[in-house]
Design a protein that fits this description.
With 377 residues, this protein is of the alpha+beta class. The chain contains ten helices and 18 strands. The protein folds into two domains: 111 residues, Rieske [2Fe-2S] iron-sulphur domain (Rieske Iron-sulfur Protein, 3-layer Sandwich), CATH 2.102.10; 214 residues, Naphthalene 1,2-dioxygenase Alpha Subunit, Chain A, domain 1 (Alpha-Beta Complex). The strands form four sheets. Strands 11, 12, 13, 14, 15, 16, 17 and 18 form an eight-stranded antiparallel β-sheet that branches. Strand 7 and strand 8 form a beta hairpin. Helix 5 packs antiparallel against helix 10. The longest helix has 17 residues. The protein is globular, with a radius of gyration of 23 Å. It starts with 19 loop residues before the first helix and ends with a helix. It comes from Puniceispirillum marinum (strain IMCC1322).
């Protein structure tokens, strides 16, 4: 195992995570087995199973899973295998008109995972068998929680309750505990990054790179207008004091969240919630970014934009939504060459994890310490 003790040294003396944490397959697998399995990690969005009966299959930690919207509007996450012979139940997102039915022998389950029918299990036209009591064979449920439309899972099952573990950020943003409305097809973005997932987190945590990588953004939201956020163990990021959206030539604005304190008149915050969620909160819209690792050197980044009022989803705001999406697409695209360049740099054997600025890199250092601790478990 790597010696990561120096990563947790005081920032003035610390080095960042060593190259192996970005390019070594064994370290990548160790991450899957520890920090992704033991913590609350994101797997998807509630908007992808918007109505009762909608299901979406996915793979997380090589485990086949399905997200399911129940009749009462809740979201369940199950292992996507039939309890009979382990057949995959659902192979594509879809709207079900009935139960979740195995395509192999037609065992079927309701949206809460309960086994309901076992056709011919006792012979032709005999649908019951004493040795297979339905109540004993529900779908295997994955511990999950939905917050701000992000679906989180704790595969290991031993993490504190989500609202306990994430209490600090939930409290920090308690004013935004209001309904969110996804902006629709024009409010979804995705990128495939040729980099380790951690580099996307590290880059997002800090504002140090703004003048050099985001010159247009820095022209009105300057480096000196930003501050670091690292007041709790499992998140870090940065905020701005000069948020002033310009998405319409007419001066029109999106509706804003209700009853926000004056801080948010011109404030916005951007936080990485460890391990794999990036968040942005503003007075008039919110975004979620899900990072899905795919090996040591590839990451899928899915970005979803939300608004504060159904009015913002109307045709009257369509052009403004599209402008807002294009603005964020430009900003996020500007980061691609940076994170991919750092990934290439991790092949340089003399690189020792790098040197932090004790002023500008505090949030990134905070993330490195978290990873080092989790990998040392």
């Amino acid at each position: 195992m790597l010696d990561l003790s120096n990563v947790s040294a005081p920032i003035e003396r610390a080095n960042g995570l060593p190259n192996a944490c970005y390019i070594d397959e064994q370290i990548y697998q160790h991450e899957q087995d520890t920090l992704f399995r033991n913590n609350w990690a994101a797997i998807g969005f509630g908007k992808d199973v918007a109505s009762p009966g909608m299901v979406k299959p996915l793979s997380f930690l090589d485990i086949p899973m399905i997200m399911v919207r129940t009749q009462n509007g809740d979201i369940n996450v199950f292992q996507n295998v039939c309890r009979h012979r382990g057949m995959i139940l659902v192979d594509a997102p879809q709207q079900l008109r009935g139960p979740i039915t195995c395509p192999y022998h037609a065992w079927s389950y309701d949206l809460d995972g309960n086994l309901r029918k076992t056709p011919h299990i006792g012979g032709p036209n005999v649908d019951t068998l004493d040795s297979v009591q339905h109540c004993d064979y529900p779908l295997n449920k994955v511990r999950s929680h939905v917050w701000n439309d992000i679906v989180f899972v704790n595969v290991g099952g031993d993490a504190p309750a989500f609202t306990t573990q994430m209490a600090a950020l939930i409290d920090r943003w308690h004013e935004f505990n209001q309904p969110l409305y996804h902006g629709g097809a024009d409010s979804s973005l995705s990128f495939d990054l040729a980099c380790n997932w951690k580099l996307a987190v590290e880059n997002y945590c800090e504002a140090y790179h703004l003048p050099f990588i985001h010159p247009a953004l820095n022209s009105y939201s300057r480096l000196e207008d930003h501050y670091n956020i690292l007041d709790h163990d499992n998140y870090a990021g940065q905020g701005t004091t000069v948020y002033a959206p310009q998405v319409s030539d007419t001066g029109a604005r999106f509706p804003t969240f209700d009853k926000l304190s004056s801080k948010w008149d011109t404030g916005a915050e951007y936080v990485a919630l460890f391990p794999n969620v990036l968040l942005g909160v503003h007075k008039d819209h919110y975004f979620n970014i899900l990072l899905t690792p795919d090996g040591t050197g590839h990451t899928h980044e899915q970005i979803e934009l939300y608004y504060t009022d159904p009015l913002a989803l109307s045709d009257d705001y369509a052009e403004m939504r599209a402008t807002n999406t294009r603005m964020w697409q430009t900003v996020f695209a500007e980061d691609i060459s940076v994170v991919e360049g750092m990934q290439k740099g991790r092949k340089a054997p003399a690189y020792d994890g790098g040197k932090f600025s004790a002023v500008m890199d505090e949030s990134t250092y905070h993330f490195h310490k978290w990873v080092a601790r989790e990998l040392s478990v």
